[in-house]
Structures are given as structure tokens and as C-alpha cells.
Design goal:
Strands 1-2-3-4-5-6-7 form a 7-stranded antiparallel beta sheet, with no helix packed on it. β3 (26-36) and β4 (39-44) form a beta hairpin. The protein has strands at residues 2-4, 9-15, 26-36, 39-44, 49-55, 58-64, 70-76. By secondary structure, the protein is mainly beta.
């Protein structure tokens, strides 16, 4: 779940999918959002940058998780 607030900050709660030690595990992150046309970058308070592209009502991207693994992030907009 990604919540982007009016003040340009965000809160991200990730739930691991698939198999292995990350399955079902929740982690959270927060920071600021920088908009760049059709993309945004989540600048984490921990120093990590996560670039996301827009496709319709979804944001998606690939980044490195704290565990060192490469992960895919997909966030779909919730209907009002």
C-alpha cells in the first residue's frame, strides 16, 4: 500500500509475495515524493531512491530490497 499525502510525503507498506522467507512479511518505509512527468521517485528517509513509472492507474518499478534481492513494485490506484 502506498499513501501519498498532500504535503509530498509518502508511507509505503510492502507485503512479500511468493515463496521463501519474504512471503507474507510486511515492511514499511516513508519519505518524500518527487514528480518527474509520467514518473515519480520515492526518496526514502533511509536514503534509498525508488523510481516508479505510471501505466494507467498503476505505478510500477524495480528496486533492490534491504535484503539485497531485486523486487518488483506495483501499486494500483484504489477506486474512490
Amino acid at each position: 500500500m502506498l499513501e501519498i499525502k498532500d504535503d509530498g510525503t509518502y508511507q509505503l507498506v510492502e507485503t512479500g509475495r511468493g515463496r521463501g522467507d519474504m512471503a507474507g512479511r510486511k515492511t514499511s518505509d516513508s519519505g518524500v515524493v518527487v514528480a518527474n512527468g509520467r514518473t515519480i521517485t520515492l526518496k526514502s528517509s533511509s536514503g534509498q531512491w525508488i523510481p516508479l513509472s505510471r501505466n494507467g492507474n498503476a505505478l510500477y518499478g524495480v528496486t533492490s530490497h534491504r535484503s539485497g534481492r531485486t523486487i518488483q513494485i506495483t501499486v494500483e490506484r484504489e477506486a474512490p
